[in-house]
Amino acid sequence: MPEIALFFGIRVSMYYNDHMPPHFHAAYNGQQALIDIVNGRVLKGALPARQLKLVLAWAVIHQDELMQNWELAKSHEPLNRIAPLM
Question: The whole model's pTM is what?
């Protein structure tokens, strides 16, 4: 699963040819969550409250880039790195 961003110990990645709806995976300290790109909500799993807030804020800022990566992943093309939250 290609990593597309890493910030504050949170690893963000996407699978190639993953199931709908468009989403990404966020992992922190052994916990994981699937985050809906369009609606900015948790589809499955959980993260600590602070890390979830950071991930959701990052996702809003980079929604267009996340959707571009989703389309690349569907085509099995290399994914682009996305700037971390600073």
Answer: 0.93
Alpha-carbon distance 55 to 47, whole Å?
Answer: 9
The continuous run of DSSP H or E covering 35 comes out as strand 31-36
Q: How many CB atoms lie within 10 A of CB 10?
A: 21
Any idea where the domains of the chain sit in the sequence?
3-74
**Cα 4 from Cα 83, distance rounded (Å):** 9
Query: Rounded CA gap, 53 and 33, in Å?
Result: 12
Question: Quick check: 24 and 44 in contact, CB under 8 A?
Answer: no
Per residue in 5-17, pLDDT (tens digit) is 999 999 999 998 7
